C-alpha cells in the first residue's frame, strides 16, 4: 500500500485522530506492514508487548484464558482498531490473544518510533497525555459503578 493510504488509515485510529497528516507521515514511514493469515495469531496473551498494531485489512478475534485455561472470546476488531496502544508508552504484557478471522494486514508501530514522534512534536505528547487521562477516568467510573455490587 502507498504511504498516503497508511496515513489515511492512521488518521482514523482514535489515538491519532487529532494528529495532522504531516506528523502521521513519520509513523507511517517508519512503521512496518505485516500480513497475518486466517487462523494465525498476531500475538498471545501474556507475551511482552513492544509495539502496537493498527488493523489495516481484515479482522481479529480477541480472547483471554479463563480460570481453567480455556480461551474465551472477548471482542472482534477490524480496520482502524489499535491493539496494545499502551505498549507505545511502556513495557506491558499482552492482555489477550489476537487471532486473524480472515487474511489480514496490520501496521506495526514500535515504541521507539512512537517516542520519536513524541520528542519531535511536543503538542502530540499533550494530546496523548490527555487521551490516557481520559481513558483512566473512564476506567475509574466503570469501577465505581461496580463498587455497589461488592459492598
UniProtKB/TrEMBL annotation:
Tree of life domain: Bacteria
GO molecular function: DNA-binding transcription factor activity; kinase activity
Name under which the protein is recorded: Protein kinase
GO cellular component, one term: cytosol
Gene3D superfamilies linked to this entry: Jelly Rolls
Keywords: Kinase, Transferase
Domain Cyclic nucleotide-binding: 15-118
Pfam families assigned to the protein according to its UniProt record, in alphabetical order: cNMP_binding
Keyword 4Fe-4S: no
